[in-house]
Amino acid sequence: MSENSEIIKILLIEDDPNIAGLIKYYLNSYRNYSFSVDWTETAEKGIEKLSIPNNYNLILLDYYLPEMNGLEALKIIKSRNINIPVIMLSSAKEKEVMSEVLKLGAIDYYMKEDIIGPLLPVIIANTIERENLKRQIEKDKGEQSQKIEAIQEIVITVSHEVNNPLAAIKLAANILLKKDLPPDIRTYIKIIKENTDRIEQTILKLRELKSEQIVPYVGRLKMFDLSTKPNTPKKEDRE
């Protein structure tokens, strides 16, 4: 009985029945996960299986296959945007092949003699856990990005309504500061002008929000950190 109820579905593309039998044996012997192995002897049949929904978690792909080798099969798999992790297996260690396989998007490349044994299910389980984590991180980033875009749309709408009154206040403040006014009145006008500048800067920051600015707040709540260095005031805005 496996400790994890999740069933890991493997598509095994391997032309040697003895190797396929060994792989099945070691996967079925693993206690932490249950494995379901769908075995096919040719790349063509494997690609055909991938053309219909099977919910495979991982593909074990032999490099040396009849008619179409593993590298050619991998190219087709990736060209069809099949986002299933692929581990390439080979009976020969060829650096050029290994490099090409990894460039094409395989998760890893192993010599059969090194991996077929008790280590195989551990490697597969770790690979799938790592890929699931990567997908979750990407999903979270995507959701976060959508939230930021929604906030930016709101900010743009609000800023459109706020910018004109702010500009009018700033213009009036600048005109008044050029007049001969009592010191206390000048102080109040400066306060008004400084705060309109702050509002403008805050709106600009909100319009350029980045996910990196999200920081912990209280408990599970998060907030945007807008404490960036303010822009230098323009010459005409200075007194």
Automatic annotation (TrEMBL):
Its EC number is 2.7.13.3. It is an enzyme of class 2 (transferase). PROSITE patterns: RESPONSE_REGULATORY. Keywords: Kinase, Phosphoprotein, Transferase. SMART domains: HisKA, REC. CDD domains: HisKA, REC. One of its GO terms (molecular function) is phosphorelay response regulator activity. It catalyses: ATP + protein L-histidine = ADP + protein N-phospho-L-histidine. InterPro entries: 2C-system_Tx_regulators, CheY-like_superfamily, HisK_dim/P_dom, HisK_dim/P_sf, Sig_transdc_resp-reg_receiver. This is histidine kinase. It comes from Kryptobacter tengchongensis.
